[in-house]
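Justification of resources, computational component.

The compute hours requested in this renewal are based largely on the per-chain cost of generating structure records like the one below. Each record pairs the submitted sequence with a full structure-token output. That output is archived, and it is also reused by downstream analysis tasks.
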Amino acid sequence: MENKGKVIEKTSYKDILKQKEFMKIVWAGVINRFGDSIDAIAFTWMVYMITKSAAWSALVFAVNQLPSVLVQPFAGALVEGMNKKKLMVVTDVIRGMITAGLAALYLANALNPWILLIFTLINSTVEAFRLPASLAVVPKVLEEKHYEYGTALNSTLSTVVQLIGLGTAGLIIGAFGIGTAIAIDGTSFFGSAFILSFLKIKEDTKTGRENKWQIREYMLVLKDGFSYLKGQPVIRNFCLLAVLINAVIVPLNSLQTPLVQEVLGQGSELLSVFSIAMTMGMGIGSFVYPFLSSKLSVRVQFAGAGTLLGMAMYSYTWGENFQDFTAGIYALTIAASFLLGVSCSVLTSALSVQFMKAVDQEYLARVGSIFNAGASASTPAASFLSGALAAFCSVSQIFRLCALFCVIIFLVIGTAKIRLE
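The structure output for this chain reads:
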């Protein structure tokens, strides 16, 4: 078990609520999540309605991930020499403006697949700077002993508000349209920026990077981050795990609408049920994670949750055998999505906590950006592959292949001698 031989201080959710600066980050994220939960359904449905193609849906999702792969490794080193609080505020404002612009174009009937790709690419590029900054800020406002419960509380609150968003998304879209739903997401970015503007953290200015950032220094910082990662086998294994997790869940994101329509034979109502059930599972998973982490080894956490993820994915395909039995389709979707949410939440929580524990604070933005880029690299590749397979294979066949791959990989992780702590 991790921390063996160390005295572990007891903590609880109540202690996290007293961490005022950390809670500002949490509440900013909660507001963002509310907007994103509404946008998740609206944007996914909008893309499919505009393109009428599973391949295009996969392509848009793939493009969304490209900046994480191509930009974020270099952005992380730049973030080391910037005021992270200001960067988080500015990037949230920019993303709000971009999302509002997308909503305006939709309302003006001026959207087409290529414009969707361009807006998605710009928004994701800005996000590539936001993510390493937010990752590097957490250890500055939260002690290591609070990581498990802090991560769990953040995920749980985000899940609750996401459920509210998903529950109201259909009403908003039905009453005001897709454009209004996306505009609400844009507004949430401005709300997040407002809260973060009051964040109080001590920025590292010892090197004077904020005022005297040079290309040579930037390259040295970037190189140092790669060197640090090279000498840390546990962190490298976490990166590989993140790559695998992202790859196997790609169909859930890029082919979600085709799954609902083609495999399960239902409409947008089931898409909402899909999202709500999965979000509830994520909420339960994040809430119980601190208790699981105190009882189970890191290896068991990953192997068990990963195997459950694969089994949940495979179960969706059973629905093609009884599409006319609507009640059965809904029951299957709710059960599979709930279990999928639990497994995803445990996997991501374990990765996040163990990563923050394993990496020195001074390297967190750099190594975190490399970590995220490596993890995200599998997503566009898997999305393009999903799009290509969609031309030759059915959606259900793609889900079965990913599910079997997931189960095999995580069973190997549970039995092989791979360093995870």
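The two ends are 8 Å apart (CA to CA). Residues 299 and 414 are 6 Å apart (CA to CA).
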